[in-house]
């Protein structure tokens, strides 16, 4: 039986599947909640043939220091924490779990849109911080028996202060029609939204199947009521939404980003929000994480912020656990795994 070291948060069911075929040891982030350093990872995995990680970095020096290593797996959609080139040079396949969080991320995107436009998060914060509350009550079990129950309509009123915008009938412009962007498009249509997309690598036929109209980036920015970013961070997409692009957006439009912050010019976005050149934004990713305590976004009342939560559900853990273990077992049986980041290693082997 081969030795395998697992730092990913695999479910108990999938760990047991591995134990039926391998000698499994566990440690690191998936067990302690703290990532191993490269040096700690080398010490813990010195004699393993298979290494499965979640968020630990696996640079070239780690790969080269593990002489028995034959397979690396990473339970992330894109294994950015693995030195793919180094693994490829040593003919080591790198498994990953693309699409593990597609549904979760798409749902979260719609949730951000609803939270920002219907002022859900701001209403929650207002109550928790003491605004709009009534006098102390002696008995909470006695219900209000009036026929017309209203919160407060006179003077300072949440009904007036937090009036929102419906999604129905609005144009959603999606940048990037990968797994998540495509699923967002499907969910948005359930809200009676019209969906456009800018996706250079998609065909009109592919978009048509989804009920989407492909347009240029400038058209999308000019006409959309919501712009949602769902493309990968590359040299071409880094900073793709800058001053000129944000200035194309309607003053009533909202920008949504759960992808990577670096695709948006930070200074340009902050300025657009401060000057209200766009109506608002909802962001789950930032240029520095954790978000610095003195960041200007925290002072704005037209932005909804969440701490990189779009992929955080128990179902995602179940998805990536099964995907990676299925692929490991296929590899052990000599079958081609379904998700190899450096497919050329398998093809050459």
Task: Output the keywords.
7-stranded parallel beta sheet; Rossmann fold; 15 helices; 349 residues; alpha/beta; 36% helix
Textual characterization of the structure:
The protein is α/β, with parallel strands linked by helices. The chain folds into two domains: 134 residues, Rossmann fold (3-Layer(aba) Sandwich), CATH 3.40.50.720; 179 residues, NAD(P)-binding Rossmann-like Domain (Rossmann fold). Helices cover 36% and strands 13% of the residues. It has 15 helices and twelve strands. It has a seven-stranded parallel sheet, sandwiched between helices. Strands 2-1-3-4-5 form a five-stranded parallel sheet. β9, α12 and β10 form a beta-alpha-beta unit. The radius of gyration is 24 Å and the shape is globular. The two termini are 22 Å apart. The model has no long low-confidence stretch (mean pLDDT 95).
Arithmetic mean of pLDDT: 95
Instruction: Report the order of strands and helices.
Output: EHEHHEHEHEHHHEHEHEHEHEHEEHH
Give the full name of the CATH homologous superfamily of the largest domain. NAD(P)-binding Rossmann-like Domain
**What is the CA–CA distance across the termini?**
22 Å
Structural class: alpha/beta
Distinct helical segment count: 15
Strand content: 5-15%
| Arrangement of strands in the largest sheet | 8-7-6-9-10-11-12
Outline the fold blueprint.
Layout (H helix, E strand, L loop, with lengths): L1 E5 L5 H8 L2 E5 L2 H4 L5 H7 L5 E4 L6 H5 L6 E4 L9 H6 L4 E2 L6 H16 L2 H9 L29 H4 L9 E5 L3 H12 L3 E5 L5 H6 L3 E2 L2 H7 L2 E4 L13 H6 L5 E4 L8 H9 L5 E4 L19 E3 L8 H19 L10 H6 L1
Parallel strand pairs: 1-2, 1-3, 3-4, 4-5, 6-7, 6-9, 7-8, 9-10, 10-11, 11-12
């Amino acid at each position: 039986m081969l030795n395998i070291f697992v730092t990913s948060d695999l479910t108990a069911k999938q760990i047991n599947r591995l134990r039926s075929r391998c000698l499994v040891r566990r440690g690191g982030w998936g067990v302690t909640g703290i990532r191993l350093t490269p040096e700690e990872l080398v010490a813990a995995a010195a004699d393993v043939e298979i290494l499965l990680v979640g968020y630990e970095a696996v640079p070239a020096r780690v790969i080269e220091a593990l002489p028995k290593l034959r397979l690396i797996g990473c339970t992330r959609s894109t294994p950015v924490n693995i030195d793919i080139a180094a693994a490829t040079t040593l003919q080591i396949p790198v498994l990953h779990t693309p699409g593990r969080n597609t549904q979760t991320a798409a749902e979260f995107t719609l949730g951000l849109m609803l939270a920002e436009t219907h002022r859900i998060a701001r209403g929650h914060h207002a109550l928790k911080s003491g605004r709009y509350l009534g006098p102390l009550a002696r008995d909470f079990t006695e219900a209000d028996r009036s026929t017309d129950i209203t919160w407060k309509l006179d003077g300072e009123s949440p009904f007036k202060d937090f009036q929102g915008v419906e999604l129905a009938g609005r144009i959603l412009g999606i940048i990037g029609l990968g797994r998540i962007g495509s699923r967002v498009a499907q969910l948005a249509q359930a809200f009676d939204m019209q969906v456009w997309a800018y996706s250079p690598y998609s065909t009109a036929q592919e978009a048509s199947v989804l009920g989407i109209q492909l347009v240029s980036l400038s058209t999308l920015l000019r006409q959309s009521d919501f712009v949602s970013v769902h493309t990968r961070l590359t040299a071409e997409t880094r900073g793709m939404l800058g001053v000129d692009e944000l200035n194309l957006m309607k003053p009533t439009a909202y920008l949504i980003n759960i992808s990577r912050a670096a695709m948006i010019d930070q200074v340009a976005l902050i300025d657009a929000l401060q000057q209200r050149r766009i109506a608002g934004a909802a962001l789950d990713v930032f240029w520095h994480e954790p978000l610095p305590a003195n960041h200007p976004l925290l002072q704005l009342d037209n932005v909804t912020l969440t701490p990189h939560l779009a992929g955080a559900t128990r179902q995602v853990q179940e998805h990536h656990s099964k995907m990676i273990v299925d692929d490991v077992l296929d590899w052990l049986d000599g079958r081609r795994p379904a998700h190899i980041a450096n497919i050329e290693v398998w093809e050459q082997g």
